[in-house]
Write a structure and sequence with these properties.
single chain, alpha/beta, 434 Repressor (Amino-terminal Domain), 3 domains, 18 helices
């Protein structure tokens, strides 16, 4: 974190906390946490500021250094906007980095959006002009431009980006910065802002509260809103930036609202209704269990998700949760026959031995999974019965 920002924050918190009257119902510690929370929220902007989409089509230009995660973020943003019902076109204007356009095409194919690119061209400005004409002809409502980066800030990069912005007149220019670069991120953000006057900041590789300092420092030093944060490589791992939610993460309070937002984007409503009906009838089986695992994996990095649950950040601090931890469970379920998955009660010892051999696990692991599944079914049945009793009152 930037030293000047850290000094300012601590000074202001001290000045506000000293002599503060403590209410009988609130402990000094609780009041101090509230003061820190309010100060962090204010310093990071106070309120959420969404991106601006105007024009036909709306143009969003993505800028930043190489390695910051621009292209990956471009795909994530496209997926998010597509989920909101918008027709999106991705444009490959990174004509320098090897395989940059191919990476963009691969991402686009995975999320089901179109890409405009001219692999043989070395004129980013002309590519951008042609892309806009293509977007209008094909009724695309949002155009996202993936611009070229460099390993360091240089004049050639700045001239090209400034000219691109002048030609495109984007409704939104986003500067993508790797939050793990610490104070260097602040210096880079200031230089880019002086040249292209971007509208908002995107923090990538934001790993829990350990990287909260970058959000504080950049917002204070550049005075531009942070609009998105992202973690990991999965296309679902993107969140709109809310200063109050980030303050909660920094203080280890979790971020339930962002967790709910991700769940709503990832979970299929028809599938949720189907599962709910099966729970009501106590008919949950291993196919349903597997489907729910797949939905959870779509939401993003597991450790990041757990960290959004209040109180879990501190508990999970020294525990490494690997996304591959679900693989033994999936292997066991996939080693069952269709009939066994649909009728878990038929799983006797001989079937369990066959399943453990097929999944590369041992019988104890199979038994543990079956036991956990049975406990889940019992809990669901109990909750269902409680709901019926309440409804009958």
């Amino acid at each position: 974190m930037n030293y000047d920002v850290a000094k300012k924050v601590t000074d202001e918190i001290r000045d506000e906390a000293l002599g503060k009257e403590v209410l009988i119902s609130v402990s000094p510690g609780q009041l101090f946490v509230k003061i820190v929370y309010d100060k962090l929220t204010h310093m990071m902007g106070g309120q959420h500021q969404p991106i601006t989409l105007k024009g036909d089509p709306s143009v969003i230009m993505i800028a930043g250094l190489n390695g910051a995660g621009k292209t990956t973020f471009t795909g994530k943003l496209a997926k998010l906007l597509k989920s909101q019902g918008k027709q999106v076109l991705l444009v490959g204007c990174d004509i320098y980095r090897p395989a940059a356009i191919q990476q963009l095409k691969t991402l686009a194919e995975g999320i089901g959006v179109d890409v405009y690119a001219e692999p043989e061209s070395k004129d980013a400005i002309q590519i951008a002009k042609n892309a806009l004409a293509f977007a209008k002809a094909n009724h695309k409502k949002v155009v996202i431009i993936d611009t070229a980066g460099r390993l360091t800030v240089n004049e050639t990069l700045m001239k090209e980006i400034a000219e691109l912005k002048n030609v495109l007149q984007p409704s939104e220019t986003l500067f993508v910065v790797d939050s793990m670069t610490g104070q260097d991120a602040v210096a880079t953000a200031k230089i880019f802002n002086e040249r292209i006057n971007y509208d908002g900041i995107v923090l990538t590789k934001l790993d829990g509260d350990a990287r909260g300092g970058a959000a504080l420092s950049i917002r204070y030093m550049v005075n531009k809103p942070i609009k998105f944060i992202s973690t990991g490589e999965k296309m679902e791992a993107i969140d709109a930036f809310y200063p109050d939610r980030m303050a909660q993460r920094i203080l280890g309070m979790g971020d339930v609202l962002s967790l709910v937002d991700r769940a709503q984007r990832s979970f299929d409503e028809d599938e949720a209704r189907r599962i709910n009906q099966k729970i009501r009838k106590n008919q949950l089986n291993f196919d349903d269990f597997l489907a729910q695992l797949q939905q959870i994996k779509k939401m993003g990095n597991i450790k990041d998700l757990v960290g959004m649950i209040p109180g879990m950040n501190k508990m999970m601090k020294d525990i490494d949760i690997d996304d591959d931890s679900f693989k033994p469970i999936e292997a066991i379920i996939y080693s069952m026959t269709k009939y066994e998955r649909e009728h878990p009660d038929v799983l006797d010892n001989s079937r369990k031995k066959r399943i453990s051999a097929g999944s590369g696990t041992n019988v104890q692991q199979v038994n543990n999974l079956i036991k956990q599944f049975e406990n889940l079914r019992k809990m669901m049945k109990k909750m269902n019965q409680m709901g019926i009793k309440k409804a009958g009152r």
